[in-house]
Amino acid sequence: MLQCKKAYWVGIFAIATLYSCAPTLDTVQEDTTVVPDQYKNQSGDSLNTARIKWSEYFTDPYLDTIIDVALKNNQELNITLQEIEIARNEIRAKKGEYLPFIGLTGAAGFDKKARYTSQGASEATTDIRPGEEMPEPLPDFMVGAYASWEVDIWGKLHDAKKAAVSRYLSTVEGKNFVMTNLIAEIANSYYELLALDNQLDIVNKNVEIQTNALKIVKLQKQAARVTELAVRKFEAEVLKTKSLQYDIQQKITETENKINFLAGRYPQHIERNPVAFNDLAMKSISTGVPSQLLENRPDVKAAELELAASKLDVKVAKKRFYPSLDISAGIGFQAFNPKYLFTAPESLLYSLAGDITAPLINRNEIKATYYSANAKQIQAVYNYEKTILNAYVEVANQLAKIDNLEKSYDLKSQEVAALTKSIEISNVLFKSARADYMEVLMTQRDALESKFELVETKMQQMNAMVDVYRALGGGWN
Question: Which InterPro entries match (predicted)?
Fold first, then answer.
């Protein structure tokens, strides 16, 4: 009879175990073999500019000072640092889940049983000691320790901890990515500020040129060589150019405030040397090979770690279908009178129990969690591949931009030289009545626009130098 019962329960447990098997799902594996061997028109040398520290890559002392302040004060970066701390605490929480839980407990109370019940009647007739009846109401005092432990048979809890570690490392890479973008944004804004300073200087000089031209036109009107229309046209051109000063000054204010915001401080003057802007030269860029993006780009590394965590999440969700073993134990003392509380063995109590449980019916919640974890893992695969592709495209775009801007800057420099010379020629021709005032005005306007475009191109060159450094994964190390 006893053997039949044992066989019965073993059969029930076997059925539960078999039924606990997780359903099979289709999944997707990441593909990193599609990364090209080298960038277009690049040598494929392993030397990589991303390995250079930002303080060595940017040699302007004013810019370096601002970046250094921003890395300490920027609010977004500090918020990310707290996310790292949150992820670190998540590791501690997951680690604690597979260790035994041990605690202390204490209790006090009293209980009054109805006399005309079986338990009340038996207590009323029970003598504790000769001549001593059971107290009524009955006090109860207890102190003890308890422990519980889920035995990690399948490694479910350890996998959950590993997933937390991967997400912690991902937040560290996220911090590095924020740092890289912060440095790039400050550098781009700083070069934009220098460009605006130079454009303001160009406008101021152009106002002087146009003011002198206006004086000449007024003298020629007095000599009846031009009409009042010419004077008014020149006056309007001077006023238009002067109005540009205030537009540029507003942009300078906004750009300074943007840099101060990124540096985590209230608006103040940004120290800089505008004269050095025209002397800025493009750095020699070593791109290395595309596969180095997997090591240098924090966003790629973060996506890789998030993918690893999502795979572990699938394992954890799958192992919830399997039976789990819980062990609980307790030991302590309990008595109706404090003077008997620590009397052994009469007041001693202890317990030890083991439970094996397996999901059998209504596993919808476990299935849903498993399906969701698998879907998130597939999402993580596509996000990882997209991040790698985006990194490669960013580098390719910036390399092409650097090459095209270099050619454009050379041509625009020649254009500025030609138009600057044409201003002198037009003024000479105008004085000798061999050119009308409209030709002088158009020449001055074209020269101003070409100088503005030259400064813009120089700024775009510096921005491209910053952006290719960021795209390669530089700035955080």
Answer: MdtP/NodT-like (IPR010131), OMP_efflux (IPR003423)
For the chain, which residues make up each domain, given as ranges?
23-97+169-321+363-472, 99-113+137-151+324-357
* Residue 100: other Cβ atoms inside 10 A: 13
- The answer for residues whose C-beta is within 8 angstroms of residue 337's C-beta and 6 or more apart is 135, 139, 141
Q: What is the pLDDT of residues 212-223, one digit of tens each?
A: 878 877 887 787
pLDDT at residue 106 in the model: 92
Q: How far apart are CA 49 and CA 466, in angstroms?
A: 11
- b/e per residue 139-151 (b: at least 16 CB within 10 A): eebbbbeeeebbe
Class of domain 23-97+169-321+363-472: mainly alpha
Residue 21 CA to residue 148 CA, distance in Å, equals 26
Q: How long a stretch of residues is the chain?
A: 477
**Residue range 99-113+137-151+324-357 in CATH 2.20.200.10:** yes
Helix (H) or strand (E) holding 149: strand 138-151
Rounded to a whole number of angstroms, the distance between the first and last alpha carbons of the chain is 73
Residue position matching structure tokens 């819980």? 326
Average pLDDT estimate for 276-302: 89
User: Residue 315 pLDDT more than 60?
Assistant: yes
What is the pTM (predicted TM-score) of this model? 0.84
Query: What is the C-alpha separation between 291 and 311, in angstroms, rounded?
Result: 23
